[in-house]
Amino acid sequence: MKKVILSVLLFCVMASCSTTVMAADTCEVVLCMYGKATGNGGGSECHSAERAFFNIVKKNRHGFLPDHTADARKSFLLECDSAAPAAISQIISKYGPVRG
Description:
Mean pLDDT: 82
Number of helices: 5
Distance between the termini: 45 Å
Order of helices and strands: HHHEEHH
Radius of gyration: 17 Å
Strand order of the largest sheet: 1-2
Shape: globular
Number of domains: 1
Strand content: under 5%
Number of strands: 2
Low-confidence stretches: 4-23
Helix content: 55-70%
């Protein structure tokens, strides 16, 4: 009985944690990646934002899909309403199809 209760409790905790939770806010990712794209990196404060961006990877059984990865990263960056489309385009053109 204890194992069942612990299993249900563990399942509930895991279910409450969203799998899409990112370490960094979308707008923070846009800001840090734009700085990186223009040569003004944000230093250690941007590591989690850069990691969140480069962790978006699309693959199939044949390997890495650069165009699908770029599309997924672009749609992630577009979640930041205050980001300029030109900034997002610049980020995607430089880092969109790149492996992390």
